[in-house]
Amino acid sequence: MYISTRDNYPSMSASEVIKLGMVPAGGLFVPAEIPVLSGEEILARQGGDYQETANWLLSLFLPDFTSAEISTCVGQAYNEENFAHPQIAPLNHFDEHIYFLELWHGPTAAFKDLALQLMPHLLSRALFKTHTEQETVILVATSGDTGKAALEGFKNVQGIKIIVFYPQGGVSKVQALQMTTTDGANTYVVAVKGNFDDCQNAVKAVFADSDLSSALAKKGYALSSANSINWGRLLPQVVYYFQSYLTLIAQGAVSPGEKINFVVPTGNFGNILAGWYAYRMGLPVHKLICASNENKILTEFFHTGSYDLHREFKQTSSPSMDILVSSNLERFLFEKTGRDAAKINRWMADLQAKGCFAVDTGTLKSIENILAAGYATEEETLKAINEVFTGHAYLLDTHTAVGYRVYQKYRQQTGDQTKTVINATANPFKFSRSVLKAIQGQDFLQGTDEFSILQALSAASRVAVHPALCDLQVKEVLHHTVCEKEEIGQEIKKILQCDF
To answer: Are 2 and 29 in contact (CB under 8 A)?
Structure first.
């Protein structure tokens, strides 16, 4: 069963939670009990492929799904048609300390594919199990990668419409075209005049609007989410933490029970939270290292205990992390306070009313035991790309480069020699302009369009352009809608042809 972080909703089954997406009254669903695995149980799984690891872990959290249903969903998601690498999320051995976990071999070249190729199948089963007759409307706020991954996963799925909102001018040209050229009879893409937080806050407000939900229900619609606020989206991400560790064990890179670090570039805190759940389940983790760009709200929070939105919002070369409101932090704080819903309610109310909140010393110390945090400047990010390419002929995207630079700082400060996995969250060609600038210099970009840059980067790096990014410039743009941030609710009504 699953419960609300704010203790404001009845406990629900896994199917009901995946269908709902988030707690209608505000808050997020978490498992009532987190399964804990022994070292022997984990080691017994070494040698299994990604699909076998996924089947095993999902079964622990989805008791109302049969093993056959889970196996079918996993097979539909993780296969050679969807993922270009047979290991799904391969480990690249970089040096004696570092491994890059390549999470970008899926159909949209970003780590979101690991969750969003599976989630539509879980949701379809959940709708059937909960006897849902209404058409489900998936609302997605994206800072760049989630949007396309969700569109690709949900397009033409029967009984579902998907509406994606992204910040106009706040994503790369490639990211925007990936979304706006998406076909499918059930897909809708809207550019919002604002930043990601505006999109996310507006979507959350729609979910919290009980009058709107009731009115939509009368029209035959039920709302759900594909953002990581939906447990069905977050859960699949736990798998690659376990799989990477099992791979290291099988390769003899670490000894059974030996702890490792994970470095996670993150904005919305979902990816690193999945790593924390893996740790909580028994995965031997020494430190989770939270890597931020110049929008360093998480870094400052983990150093001071104060979360403060009163700051400049910066558009960076790592736009998927250009986020100030990290939704999944609520789940993490709920767990680190010993599931104290009263504290969560107070802190989230302060955030809503004052734009800030501060946690108690005990909570902060509990966090520091497992989590470290740092950030990289724009200059440091580009230098990291250049350094890794020049020294190792390995190409990083801007987000992974943030993680690499933050890890370098962490090691310098701590001297920690623990083997470390850095989550490589996107294919470098998704951010080709910034990556090419890093390895060739600004002058090389003068007068060059986004798609010429793709080819130039491929020539300079001798790496092929990811298939998902080829020929975007000749695809027809199918979605042209732009709206103000205050108009998102109205835009949903318009798309659904609801005139109430």
So the answer is: yes
Question: Is residue 486 assigned to a domain?
Answer: no
Each residue's pLDDT tens digit, 12-67: 999 999 999 999 889 999 999 999 999 999 999 999 999 999 999 999 999 999 99
Provide φ and ψ at 35, rounded to 5°. Answer: -65, 135
Angle between helices 119-129 and 145-154 (to 10 degrees): 50
pTM, 2 dp: 0.93
Tens digits of per-residue pLDDT, 158-178?
Answer: 889 999 999 999 998 889 999
| Share of the chain residues as helix, strand and coil, in percent rounded to the nearest 5 | 50, 15, 35
Nearest one of 402, 159, 104, 55 to 263, comparing CA atoms: 402
CA-CA distance, 62 to 58, in Å (whole number)?
6
264 bridge partner residues = 290
The tally of domains found in the chain comes to: 1
CA 7 to chain centre: 25
User: Hunting for tokens 């080829």 — which residue is that?
Assistant: 470
Rounding to the nearest 10 degrees, give the CA dihedral for residues 86, 83, 402, 485: -160
Contacts 24+ apart (CB under 8 A), 452-458: 454/174, 454/429, 457/428, 457/429, 457/432, 458/429
Q: Residue 181: inside a domain, yes or no?
A: no
Residue 148's closest CA among 123, 122, 184? 184
8 A C-beta contact, residue 444 and residue 121: no
**CATH number for the domain including 442?**
3.40.50.1100
Residue 445 belongs to what domain range? 91-110+234-472
